[in-house]
């Protein structure tokens, strides 16, 4: 059974480290709109309170809070499969180590903070990069449509969750280095009449825990994913790993991609664009070079964002759209 299949079987229990009301409420709204009987958030690590009041549909629920991970009772701990770490970048390493020490059989997590010290990020990769699926540092998280919303991915308001059709099945994987663009591409897929199978923002910091290659392998191995849409940026050489995998026929599903950053060619010197990795440091890291390399092995790598969106529209329709019946209850709660 693949990791995504395990999630679809119900392995969705989230232990949150830190507190962010809007992100947590959006996860519960997703859970409710997807027809779950209970919230996926099972506990929060924070010293501020004994419980966090949230809504599950129109009903108030109290999510238990604990001062540290060791105080999570066994009946809650047995449900935990995922870490949502929304502490600051400088605290992320220690709290991540504490989580996986306590839950070695967990499936993964999400590091929300950006600017995690590079020594800390590389230590997290050394310890956990090959064992767990971890989105970030710096991003919006991981989504398995209808089953798991780990972070701000897809939006933090019920109107965004509804517009992105997060509570329905789909067949298009969305992978991006950018958190904001992950959400934009999800919406683009939906606006084209398709649905997302899963989505992941690998992270905008220099050292993401899960590599781009591992994210593509996840899509390739997923029976429900029929095609992959990828948004990348100038800087780094991860895309050349994708090129090699296509050559070796380890990636066989259709890939539509857009590599942002051609504007860098307008400057006399290479410029830093947004994310820590979005800087051309050596030959071959330009947006144009990576687009051309991907095109040469059969990926559809578009020159403009408009034509990128047009290619998404050409993808086959997603099968088995679901009728979601619980969105309206959440919408009514927000209006009242």
Unreliable segments of 5+ consecutive residues: 265-272, 275-281
Helix content: 25-40%
Radius of gyration: 19 Å
Q: Alpha-carbon distance between the termini?
A: 43 Å
Shape: globular
Strand order of the largest sheet: 3-4-2-1-5-6-7
Number of helices: 12
Content of β-strand? 15-25%
Largest sheet, strands/sense/barrel: 7 strands, mixed
Query: What's the total count of β strands?
Result: 14
Overall average pLDDT: 89
Structural class: alpha/beta
What order do the helices and strands follow?
A: HEHEEEHEHEHEEEHEHEHEHEHEHH
Summarize the structure.
With 336 residues, the protein is an alpha/beta fold.
Can you put this structure into words, describing what you see?
With 336 residues, the protein is of the alpha/beta class. The chain has helices at residues 3-8, 21-33, 74-77, 92-102, 118-128, 158-163, 179-191, 212-221, 238-247, 287-296, 305-313, 327-335; strands at residues 13-17, 41-45, 51-56, 59-66, 80-85, 108-111, 133-135, 142-144, 148-150, 172-176, 196-201, 227-233, 255-260, 300-301. It has a seven-stranded mixed beta sheet with strand order 3-4-2-1-5-6-7, with helices on both faces. A seven-stranded mixed beta sheet has the order 9-8-11-10-12-13-14, sandwiched between helices. α4 (92-102) packs parallel to α5 (118-128).
């Amino acid at each position: 059974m693949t990791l995504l299949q395990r999630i679809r079987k119900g392995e969705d229990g989230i232990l949150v480290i830190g507190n962010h009301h809007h992100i947590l409420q959006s996860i519960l709204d997703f859970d409710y709109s997807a027809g779950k009987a209970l919230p996926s958030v099972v506990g929060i690590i924070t010293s501020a309170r004994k419980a966090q009041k949230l809504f599950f549909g129109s009903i108030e629920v109290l999510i238990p809070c604990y001062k540290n991970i060791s105080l999570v009772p066994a009946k809650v701990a047995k449900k935990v499969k995922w870490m949502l770490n929304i502490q600051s970048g400088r605290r992320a390493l220690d709290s991540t180590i504490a989580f996986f020490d306590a839950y070695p059989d967990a499936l993964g997590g999400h590091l929300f903070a950006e600017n995690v010290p590079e020594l800390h990020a590389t230590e997290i990769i050394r310890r956990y990069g090959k064992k767990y699926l971890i989105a970030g540092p710096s991003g919006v998280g991981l989504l398995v449509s209808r089953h798991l919303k780990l972070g701000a991915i897809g939006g933090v308001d019920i109107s965004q969750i509804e517009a992105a059709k997060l509570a329905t099945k789909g067949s298009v994987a969305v992978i991006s280095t950018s958190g904001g663009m992950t959400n934009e591409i999800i919406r683009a897929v939906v606006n084209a009449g398709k649905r997302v199978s899963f989505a992941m923002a690998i992270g905008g910091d220099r050292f993401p825990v899960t590599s781009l290659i591992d994210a593509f392998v996840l899509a390739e191995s997923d029976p429900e994913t029929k095609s992959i849409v990828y948004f990348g940026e100038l800087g780094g050489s991860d895309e050349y790993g994708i090129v090699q995998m296509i050559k070796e026929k380890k990636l066989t599903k259709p890939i539509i991609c857009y590599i942002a950053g051609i504007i860098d060619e307008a400057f006399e010197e290479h410029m830093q664009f947004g994310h820590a990795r979005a800087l051309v440091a050596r030959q071959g890291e330009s947006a144009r070079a990576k687009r051309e390399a991907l095109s040469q092995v059969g990926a559809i790598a578009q020159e403009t964002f408009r034509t990128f969106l047009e290619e998404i529209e050409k993808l086959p329709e997603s099968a088995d759209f679901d009728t979601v019946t619980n969105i309206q209850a959440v919408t009514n709660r927000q209006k009242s």
